[in-house]
């Protein structure tokens, strides 16, 4: 059986769901709300357009919940088999109209089965495509109760949830606990009529330093800036950014979940032939044939989602990351992009260009003792202690630890 249907309101399984829906929409003809779980990738086609429409919300970043992105992730995952995970796409319907989607998978984590965002560890921002007027908290209650009561998972772990979004509020209302927090940098062009007006929001000293760095780089090396959109081949930019980021991580004794995943390299290599190819955009600052800095990401619903950037350390004296980011932002403004998602962490070079950041939180919700051991004792407490111990080690030892935990696996 590829999908499971929860009867409308099923009071034994969906606590207080009926009353909440009646309060939101009193019209009796629209009262029925069905929760359906899909476990088969082949059923995505029938959901595609309605699902894509739900991700076009102007006020919330939802690219990583779009069907095109997730079809690509699942295609890569399916190539490697599905021994340790199961698709669990939760949807809500009013009659024949799709009104909410929560893309999940249930993955084995040691002795536990944990429900996570479908694109973990590759996605950058978790979210919830849901129709305006629907009760996000009621939907999350329905889904998590089903996962718990049917024994499908021992808990839920959702990472990188932006504050003040439907999913963040719903998880808080459900009683999920924050296990880790960070800041994600954001550039919002909407209040500004032109890019020069935006530049005036930067401190005069910052503008002067960045302008001088760009002028020195131009004078000493003669620079060109390439911009390649989805109708072109940006494989070289994707490859340069990946390799540059990997070298930087290794040199600085750092690691990241996506880079530890053996599927990540395949996912990136296949982007130009994937369902998200038309969303791709790449930026490359170069001197002749030598890259100085590269960055690429995705365009969706008036936003640019920066995914991977890298710089050539030979040009560090010119602050190439800061200089190139300014050129990227100007290019985005010229293309009518209203919001640039620079992602976490809110590094200094990003914050040179913006004063705005949003908090992003990791949430954990345990259903039983196994889930509690993993999510509360390890993810919430043990991992924080391990992170502090790791950062206190000498760099030589940290590099060795990163290698042992798969830090070089993505290469």
Describe this structure in words.
There is one protein chain. The chain is 38% helix and 26% strand. The chain has 411 residues and is an alpha+beta fold. A 13-stranded mixed beta sheet has the order 1-2-3-4-5-6-13-7-12-11-10-9-8, with helices on both faces. α7 packs across α11.
Sheet-strand content, in percent, reads 25-35%
Question: Order of SSEs, N→C?
Answer: EHEHHEEEHEHEHHEHHHEEEHEHEHH
Radius of gyration, in Å, reads 22 Å
- Mean pLDDT equals 86
Largest sheet: 13 strands, mixed
As a percent range, the share of helical residues equals 25-40%
Give the terminus-to-terminus CA distance: 38 Å
Unreliable segments of 5+ consecutive residues:
5-29, 404-411
The DSSP helix count reads: 14
Count the E strands.
13
In short:
By secondary structure, this protein is of the alpha+beta class. It contains 14 helices and 13 strands.
Question: Which structural traits does this protein have?
Answer:
13-stranded mixed β-sheet, 14 helices, 38% helix, 26% strand, globular, disordered C terminus
